[in-house]
Specification:
It is a single chain. The protein is an all-alpha fold. The chain has one domain. 78% of the residues lie in helices and 0% in strands. The protein contains eight helices and no strands. α1 (20-49) runs antiparallel to α6 and α6 runs antiparallel to α7. It is globular.
């Protein structure tokens, strides 16, 4: 499997001038991994309807995912987006990172009014089904940019695409659990909960296709435009990833006392660093 950056080095933005077989390659792998991530959402939703499930399991999964996502955003996605910023607008990527961060904040917390990862214990706030569906809308925005992130990563390298997928998959089970739990709190059926988590997977696939289409259109406009498109996609999705890790997941981790949960977060960070040492050195 090859990526857009693994063609012969023609210098600078020429690396983004992908031919059709390359486009097909990165789009296919992105769609396959996006579908796998969607299955993780569904698994998280199934946990809610199961008779027995472990809060401890979910907490440690959130902790591991938060560390992995935080390291991926700060050591991979954001540096790459800054590196690809056009010379005439070096701060554009930084601004788009902020845009991505506040997009998720707005849709997750301004619409529903209350949102957190994990089991929904404030059932009274979701008695109005409109509130539950606005929470779904917020998560759909987030998963859309998950798809943008995966595609942007594979446009740069197999390594970046893979590590971004790792960050996505590690928070998909808590994400699916959260959405199904919200539907349960709103007194919706199990089927409604599973449909909502399935919608998260569809939204991620839509993000993958949208980013691939944007890149394909940009290639027709010229090599610099193609590079700028990938930089923008990676910057916005980097801001989204940073928000989910630092503002959604870490606060949930902080509710659980003990050294073990802290070490699990550190383990997620260390895993990214270890994988980088193994595969990029």
């Amino acid at each position: 499997m090859i990526s857009a950056l693994e063609e012969p080095d023609r210098g600078g933005c020429d690396l983004f001038y992908a031919k059709l077989p390359v486009v097909t390659s990165y789009l296919a792998i992105s769609l396959i991994l996006g579908a796998v991530a969607g299955l993780a959402n569904v698994f998280g939703g199934v946990i809610v309807s199961a008779r027995a499930w472990s809060r401890t399991f979910l907490s440690y999964f959130i902790a591991l995912g938060s560390g992995f996502m935080l390291a991926t955003a700060l050591t991979e996605m954001i540096p790459e987006s800054l590196k690809l910023s056009p010379p005439e607008a070096p701060s554009s990527a930084a601004l788009l990172i902020l845009v991505g961060y506040f997009i998720v904040h707005f849709f997750e917390h301004s619409w529903p009014g209350h949102f957190h990862f994990g089991e929904e214990t404030h059932a009274d706030e979701f008695l109005n089904s409109r509130v539950a569906y606005t929470a779904l809308g917020g998560l759909l925005i987030h998963t859309f940019f998950d798809g943008v992130a995966i595609t942007s990563g594979f446009l740069i390298s197999r390594w970046l695409g893979t590590v971004i997928f790792g960050a996505v998959i590690l928070h998909n089970i808590p994400e699916g659990f959260t959405m199904a739990s919200i539907m349960k709190a709103a007194h919706k059926s199990v089927r409604a909960g599973l449909w909502s988590v399935s919608a998260l997977g569809v939204s991620r696939l839509a993000g993958i296709v949208a980013m691939a289409a944007a890149h394909g259109f940009a290639v027709e406009q010229g090599r610099p435009m193609a590079a700028r498109t990938v930089s923008c996609g990676l910057a916005i999705s980097g801001g989204v990833t940073l928000y989910v890790a630092a503002s959604d997941l870490i606060p949930e981790v902080n509710k659980m006392p003990g050294r073990a949960i802290t070490l699990t977060v550190a383990g997620g960070v260390a895993l990214v660093i270890l994988l980088r040492c193994l595969f990029l050195t």
